[in-house]
Amino acid sequence: xxxxxxxxxxxxxxxxxxESRLLLGTARYPSPAILLEAVKxxxxxxxxxxxRRESTSERSGQAFWSLIRELxxxxxxxxxxxxxxxxxxxxxxxxxxxxxxxxxKLEVIGDxxxxxxxxxxLVEAARILNDEGFxxxxxxxxxxxxxxxxxxxxxKVLMPWGAPIGSGRGLNNVYGLKALRANFPDVPLxxxxxxxxxxxxxxxxxxxxxxxxxxxxxxQAAEPVKMAKAFAQAIDxxxxxxxxxxxxxxxxxxxxxxxxGKAFLA
Length: 266
Known about the structure:
Layout: E1 11-13, E2 16-18, E3 22-25, H1 32-42, E4 46-50, H2 51-54, H3 61-71, E5 74-78, H4 85-99, E6 103-106, H5 119-131, E7 135-140, H6 144-152, E8 159-160, H7 174-183, E9 190-192, H8 198-206, E10 211-214, H9 216-219, H10 224-244
Helix pairs in contact: 1-3, 1-10, 4-5, 5-6, 8-10
């Protein structure tokens, strides 16, 4: 059966090609130096940056922005921490000015505990931003109807969660994620949030997802640089396995040794 993006390197977001299928967040690393080394070790070509987080007293904004430029990677600003359409749209406008890009990872959060997206506000904000010339990467759920409405609103990429942000639980709803991939075979799909282990990332890639965005699993690991490299290798392995065409799961055993030529004793 033909599969989308049958290439290990041809990942496209809004006409821009990427070789790496790993996207990294930039928050909560032990130090800027470790962030720098982790990004280099991962080989990723895009990082997400929260305008709201990086403008706090926790970091010097100018120093952090200098570090990001030093990485030489594409920046995807996000609207992390926004709980309303107005807040998200305003933050997106500020991010476009600061980072000089129409790209925006759109988050409109609906619940403080699970950080689940407010899908109604998300679709509304996505429509507003797309109409204003943004190129939107919406953080969403695996809901098929919401996905269709985001595409109708002008989004060309979807970023469904695997599990709640920072939970490290992996893929909570494999059935739903499979259905999303099957229903939108030509849309770039990025698992965003909930990935805790390289094996989680490999599983998502084996389902046919196009890329993985993660932050906490690397930033808060005991050794972030080693973990970043492990994730890069797992994502590559998962992608190669998907393209190779895995065998289907079976309920019964199937012998791997042929019976032709076997001696039968009376």
